[in-house]
Design brief:
Layout lengths: L12 E5 L2 E9 L2 E13 L2 E5 L3 E6 H6 L8 E6 L3 E9 L5 E9 L3
Length: 108
């Protein structure tokens, strides 16, 4: 996942490894929404965030269950047989927000 420059914040790249399982609700076919249940997160997945250097690895399921990894909660999607794009946004009480876009590619 790569971010754009925003308010002098450099782009961020996060690398994910291993498996994460979550219960999700999907509406639509080639276009729709995905909503994940973070309390159902399990697995051995880890992530490393790269900004101007690597931030140490962390457990993905634990962060999802704690509400820290909001980018895993879903969003709107569009897909075809080979690719999928998921975009989401979370707005905090103070008006600040996080936005994300996932670009996924079928490997099998």
């Amino acid at each position: 996942m790569i971010g754009d420059w925003d308010d002098e914040v450099p782009p961020i790249m996060t690398t994910y490894r291993k498996k994460l399982k979550m219960e999700v609700r999907i509406t639509g076919t080639k276009r729709g929404t995905i909503k994940a249940d973070p309390s159902s997160a399990s697995g051995n997945a880890v992530f490393t965030t790269h900004v101007t250097g690597a931030i140490p690895q962390a457990q993905l399921a634990k962060g999802a269950r704690a509400g820290i990894r909001r980018d895993l909660y879903g969003g709107s999607y569009i897909c075809n047989a080979k690719t999928m794009k998921i975009s989401g946004r979370h707005v905090y009480k103070d008006g600040e927000h996080d936005s994300w876009t996932w670009w996924l590619r079928r490997t099998r």
